[in-house]
Design brief:
With 376 residues, this protein is α+β, with helices and mostly antiparallel strands. The protein has 3 domains: 110 residues, Acyl-CoA dehydrogenase/oxidase, N-terminal domain (Butyryl-Coa Dehydrogenase, subunit A, domain 1, Orthogonal Bundle); 104 residues, Butyryl-CoA Dehydrogenase, subunit A, domain 2 (Beta Barrel), CATH 2.40.110; 152 residues, Butyryl-CoA Dehydrogenase, subunit A, domain 3, CATH 1.20.140.10. It has 11 helices and 10 strands. It has a 4-stranded mixed β-sheet with strand order 1-4-5-8, covered by helices on one side. A 4-stranded antiparallel β-sheet has the order 2-3-7-6, with no helix packed on it. β9 and β10 form a beta hairpin. The longest helix has 37 residues. The mean pLDDT is 95. The structure holds flavin-adenine dinucleotide (FAD). Flavin-adenine dinucleotide (FAD) binds next to β1, β3, α10 and α11.
């Protein structure tokens, strides 16, 4: 397997970095503090084509691959995990893989251009890591499904025009496309999380909410397999966000360590610091290679399950360790809230939980390894 990036991928990444630094970075502190979705910036981001990274060209996208999605996620992560809004890419991926022609025509162009915003609504107050207790129920009528239930911890639920939502039907877990303005949809509370704050989080309820049959995604009872398939892809995006924030934290710390004089040398000249730098960069490179393996498998074999979970787990651990070390290397400089370290650290801790906890990633990896060994 070749894990190197080609010239076009590097140019795409560079273009994304320049846009994010110029158009999105200036307001991040305010949006993170107030927990606000940067709508204007995302519209511009969409106009540049970035939100259509994986969307086929016939629906207005760039038709690039998982690797480009990862590089884009990395650049967003450098700024803020909250600016990643993975619900957009998850919803696109679900519609691309499982949507009808009509659903693709209706939703993909808007999702690729930023005119439509999307979110993922899986979790409930009593169901996070396990779906066994998902209570949201969809009752079938002649033309609609009528939904009742409560969803919690949902990024961008109030801002989204469309939510991919997991509910139970007579035939099992099923995914629906819930559109803004659906009767009975009510935000119960805006939550106040430690991280991912630029992607506001809500608890909402559905009371006798009609969803037209045309908004059923895939088949009734296929929700779990559709979810697993898409989440392998989006966990590679999560892993990339971790890489972005960890690399940015190290760069910031090294700039400081190279400039800061202590006695007759600079911080970077202390052997104790140089060893920390060497260890962290070794881990970062290993983490990046693991992410790249997952992205390559996702593109070539459509199955990255084990690597995607390993990548989310390992990149998360490396990011937390790297950001903590970066704060240490920068001394008092890194301890103030006007520096990005605390935002990266809060985002990293929240992102370890969102999209599946480290324990759940380990369970998936162990299942895959043990299955393989038994097969062999
Ligand atoms: C910032 C943030 C954003 C989020 N955004 C979204 C969103 O947009 N959409 C959405 O649907 N959800 C979202 N979530 C919810 C997230 O997916 C869940 O919080 C996560 O899956 C964990 O579920 P839980 O919080 O119910 O924890 P629990 O499932 O109650 O887990 C509690 C603890 O038990 C451990 N545990 C659970 N099961 C096992 C097991 N089998 N083996 C070992 N340990 C186990 C967990 O790892 C954890 O340490 C978000 C969460 C956060 C924090």
């Amino acid at each position: 397997m070749d894990f190197s990036y080609n010239q076009k991928q590097l140019q795409f990444q560079q273009k994304a970095r320049e846009f994010i630094e110029k158009e999105m970075a200036p307001k991040i502190e305010e949006y993170d503090r107030r927990s606000i979705f940067a709508k204007e910036a995302f519209l511009k981001f969409g106009e540049q084509g970035f939100l259509g990274v994986i969307v086929p060209q016939e629906f207005g996208g760039l038709a690039l691959g998982t690797m480009e999605y990862c590089l884009l996620s990395e650049e967003l992560g450098r700024l803020s995990a909250g600016y990643h809004h993975n619900g957009i890419f998850q919803t696109q991926k679900m519609i691309i893989n499982h949507g009808t022609r009509e659903q693709k025509n209706r939703f993909l162009p808007g999702l690729a251009s930023g005119k439509l915003h999307a979110a993922t609504a899986i979790s409930e107050p009593a169901a996070g890591s396990s779906f066994a207790k998902i209570k949201t129920f969809a009752r079938k009528t002649k033309d609609n499904y009528i939904l009742n239930g409560v969803k919690s911890h949902i990024n961008d639920a109030a801002e989204a025009d469309i939510l991919n939502l997991l509910a139970r039907t007579e035939r099992g877990l099923t995914i629906f496309l819930l559109e803004k303005g659906t009767p009975g949809f009510k935000i119960k509370r805006k939550l106040d999380p430690i991280g991912l704050r630029a992607s506001p989080i809500y608890k909402f309820e559905l009371k006798e909410s009609p969803i037209p049959k045309e908004n059923l995604l895939g088949q009734e009872g296929e929700g779990l397999s559709m979810f697993v398939n898409t989440f392998n892809f989006s966990r590679l995006g999560n892993a990339s966000v971790f890489l972005g924030m960890a690399k940015a934290a190290m760069e910031e710390a090294l700039n400081f360590a190279e400039a800061r004089e202590i006695g007759n040398q600079n911080v970077i000249d202390f052997q104790g610091i140089r060893w920390i730098v060497a260890e962290l960069y070794t881990q970062l490179e290993a983490a990046e290679l693991l992410r790249n393996k997952g992205a390559t498998l996702d593109e070539t074999e459509g199955d990255s399950s084990s690597s995607a979970s390993m990548a989310k787990l390992f990149c998360g651990e490396v990011a937390v360790e790297t950001i903590m070390a970066a704060i240490r290397i920068t001394g008092s400089h890194g301890c103030y809230r006007d520096k990005p370290f605390e935002r990266w650290l809060r985002d990293a801790k929240a992102l370890e939980i969102a999209g599946g906890t480290p324990e759940i990633m380990k369970n998936i990896v162990a299942d895959q390894i043990l299955k393989k060994e038994r097969r062999g």
